[in-house]
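Hey, can you fold this?
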Amino acid sequence: MPHQSDGPGGPDEREVVAQHSEEIKSNWERTLHDMQAMADDRESKGYATLTVPAGDTTTLTPDMGEDDSWGLSHVVPDNYADDFEALYEESAFEESAVYQLESGGFVFVVTELINPTDEVVIFVAGSYDMRFAGGLVRTAMDREEMYTHVKTLDHTHLGTFHHDDPSDFFPDPEVFYAYDVTS
């Protein structure tokens, strides 16, 4: 997570995280547990699955990087890269589902990427600070689509997924705007 302040007199991110550290840790553990339970359920139905916990998740807007890509960008540990790439390259992920929990100004999310033809599912878990998501929410709602990007720490791009419905990620966009410190 970036270490930014929301201005004079406003809480700095380190203070927010410190105030909610036990809650954040508990919700992250719950997210990982839920992701594994979802994977176990899919496996019991014959699907091949991969669960990937992101080490960092960033909310990207088109004007933030070297290119105009935007969406949720997950940085995943290198030891997941080969398995991820093998499934990504061999599969056409036609469906997705999003499961999330908002707590203390943070969103804990599991994105389920589904290839129903080959019965393959990749689950990616991440969390992000709602204070830095307003620009992404506006972009996604305006463009009526959403993207999920997966890369390694050294910025090796592993895959990008397109989602037709941003409301799966942002069911109540106004909630995000209330937290936004970027506008």
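Oh, and this one too while you're at it.
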Amino acid sequence: MKILITSDSHGLTNEVAMLKQRHEDDVIARIHCGDSELPFDASEMNDYYRVAGNCDYDRAYPDVEELTVAELPILITHGHLYGVKSSLRPLEKLAKERDAKVICYGHSHVAKADVIDGRLYINPGSIRLPKQSPHPTYSILSYEDKIATVRFYTLDGKEVPELEKSVTFK
């Protein structure tokens, strides 16, 4: 089972659609962690679970989305409402309250993954304005036999192996 995760595309349409098309046969779900700056019903956003970022003004976007894929509870939020640029603690509290195993967020434009208290926190970075990286990034979450692994890729599809992170769920 694989899930495409992207964030902070800030108005890009071709790239959001291209990622969806590139991975249409690989993934069973797609997540956009906010700041698409596109209308909620934009065709490029179809088939994405999506949330509101601080630059999304369409009120149809929820602040938080929860889903379960292959028995894996996932929480999605942009992160601006939880201060993710300075700390993940408020997001950790929300994850515990919602009993999420995987937490997807954006806002900082920094591609990274953290395992905290047995939960996997994924920020796919930004496909438009990356920080702390010379390349726009997105990620793919794989889940099999209770092992979740997130891999990061540049927009042109090259893997960034030093960012990979895995966790085994009980």
